[in-house]
């Protein structure tokens, strides 16, 4: 008995549509755990930071430079009273700074001013640099383990183009990266 050719074409068409639907569902299924993990990390760490901040007496959220100066005086008095107070302020300040850097939250100016008021300019600069490096490393790790699978899955064609551009400019990579950093408009996006 002869096979009707339309049947094979319809089967291929439905199979292709089915495969596309399965791939689309698969993307959502792999996307959700990563997002839940990221938001879980953010909210759990935020809860921990807020809990730590509440342990410092007479502290409020600064909204201006003057408020930061007032808070710095309060924190300096608290940290100068006892060694435990100093360690407490140092620990909370360090964790807030790293958390802020890890989740790319703006407000470094307030923390830098506060660090300068609490620890002096030299120590504050050194401390801010170290904490910024640690926070940036945490941000890198978050993006590597959570963001990279999503980027590879959803933006693979654009990512392969960018990788090709980096490979082509391997000899002058410093200047290439400097250029795309100074001019953030990316024509290939």
UniProtKB/TrEMBL annotation:
<keyword id="KW-0732">Signal</keyword>
<keyword id="KW-1133">Transmembrane helix</keyword>
<keyword id="KW-0472">Membrane</keyword>
<dbReference type="GO" id="GO:0016020">
    <property type="term" value="C:membrane"/>
</dbReference>
<dbReference type="InterPro" id="IPR032816">
    <property type="entry name" value="VTT_dom"/>
</dbReference>
<dbReference type="Pfam" id="PF09335">
    <property type="entry name" value="VTT_dom"/>
</dbReference>
<keyword id="KW-0812">Transmembrane</keyword>
<protein>
    <submittedName>
        <fullName>33_t:CDS:1</fullName>
    </submittedName>
</protein>
<dbReference type="InterPro" id="IPR045014">
    <property type="entry name" value="TM41A/B"/>
</dbReference>
<feature type="transmembrane region" description="Helical">
    <location>
        <begin position="31"/>
        <end position="53"/>
    </location>
</feature>
<feature type="transmembrane region" description="Helical">
    <location>
        <begin position="85"/>
        <end position="103"/>
    </location>
</feature>
<feature type="transmembrane region" description="Helical">
    <location>
        <begin position="109"/>
        <end position="142"/>
    </location>
</feature>
<feature type="domain" description="VTT">
    <location>
        <begin position="105"/>
        <end position="187"/>
    </location>
</feature>
